[in-house]
Amino acid sequence: MTASGVLDQAREAFARRLWASAYRDFAAADAAMPLELSDLESLALSAYLSGHDEESTSAWTRAHHAALRRDEPTRAAKYAVQIGAGLLFRGAAAPAMGWFARGERALEGCGDSPERAWLRTWNAFVWMWNGEFGKAQPAFADGATAGRRCGDTDLLAMARLGDGMSLVLQGDARAGMALLDEVMAGVTSGEVSPMYAGIAYCTVIAGCSDVFDLRRAREWTEALTRWCDAQPELVPFRGNCLVHRCELMQLDGSWPEAVAAARQACEHLSGSVKWDTLGSAYYQLGELQRLRGDFPEAEKSFRKANEAGRSPEPGLALLRLAQGRIDIALGILARALSEADDPPARSRIMPAYVETLLASGDVESARGYASRLKAYADLMDAPYLHAVADAALGAVLLADGEPGAALRTLRAAATTWRALNAPYETARVRVLIGAACDELGDPETAALETAAARKTFEELGAVPDLERLARPVHRSLTAREEEVLNLLAAGKTNRSIARELGLAEKTIARHVSNIFTKTGAQSRAAATAYAYEHHLIQVR
């Protein structure tokens, strides 16, 4: 086929939104003959939409210089905007700002134009991510006005996207998510071009994650997937989209698919074009490996996450907890919590901290953090966070000898987890519900709940949870542990036991944790019952 024939084929594929085919044919034509600016533009766009980011940037750069040579400043500015937008989306803010500055320079001496509004809108995104909302929001408003005036639906969508995300970041989730929903409605109805559709989706999903709105994230993911199915050669999920999709797969219980998607994300994001979300991809892979019991690989993934700039908490601490290194886990989480400076960030650390404090036997501290987590859930009013908080508080109530109150709270958590279609979280709560029923004298319901949880763990491949369920109920206590158990059964707190035995409170917490593990008890009341049943109580 002649070069011109290949070019005609490329144009036809582009018109039919066959992005990979269009890129292949445009690239072949480009190697054989000089392309017109419009065709070079199509080469850049089809490269981007088929996942060839580096080649896309190269083509846009060539188009920018060609437009400058032809003295077409608005066109040159347009291409600078495209390059900067792609870089900004990958987290390369400094190079992006350089290209936006190039766009501004190209427009010197020109009158008002949509390109100026585009540049101001993208600069506003940088201001927004830096927390400069007073500068960002007026710019987004100007961008929306310009988009409506010139009929640029992409500009209007991006301006509304930024405005909505600014509101979310400032704590006005209701108004912010309403704007983001409006943007996504435009995406799925075909009003927004494919390049900006992907950017919109990733930003909206990030907003959903910030406010723990997993239900909305799932709904928009399903809607976008249907939209993408009409463009089989499109690579729609990239950057933080890949990571958030893994999170949703994990929540849904699609663990094998989530692992595959996480590995794909790590490979894609660590390619020749680096993304700032690489650390989050490795973290998500580490979480899945931890849940499935592949601890050595989880360790490697968490370390890679840290190297790529993503702190590995709370995953690394939970890995240490699973390895029995409770003191190390506590230290990691206490430090991470001290650095978390807002309710959403603290809410991501606190559940693991409560779980680890309970494992250490420090029920009093665990209750305090569970109460704070409940307050954060009430503040943000997200079903996901309500379920997390109820599960944590229920575990504390159970450990503190209040099985009736624990059962009510845990059943609320289980109901919400079921509504969110979260099988693993539901199963973990059912284990605690079983323990509460057992303490309340209902062993039959306890067995049913435990069996249902075990079945889910088996289906998911949650090896550590299965091992915890299979752990023998009784292992020999040391003399010191029997001594601590006697004082615990007498109703003494860890602090008073430490004073009486002349030991550190942290040492007592470790002994209490060992007692719980060896006896299979999940509360102080259960441990006391165990002591009486096995005639371990000494008359003092």
TrEMBL record:
Annotated HTH luxR-type domain residues: 475-535
InterPro entries according to UniProt: Sig_transdc_resp-reg_C-effctor, TPR-like_helical_dom_sf, TPR_rpt, Tscrpt_reg_LuxR_C, WH-like_DNA-bd_sf
GO molecular function: DNA binding
Signal peptide start and end residues: none
PROSITE patterns: HTH_LUXR_1 (PS00622), HTH_LUXR_2 (PS50043), TPR (PS50005)
CDD domains given in the database record: LuxR_C_like
GO biological process: regulation of DNA-templated transcription
TPR repeats, residue ranges: 279-312
One Pfam family this sequence matches: GerE
The entry's keywords: DNA-binding, TPR repeat, Transcription, Transcription regulation
Superkingdom, natural source: Bacteria
PANTHER family in the cross-refs: DNA-BINDING TRANSCRIPTIONAL ACTIVATOR DEVR_DOSR (PTHR44688)
UniProt name for this protein: HTH luxR-type domain-containing protein
UniProt source species: Kribbella sindirgiensis
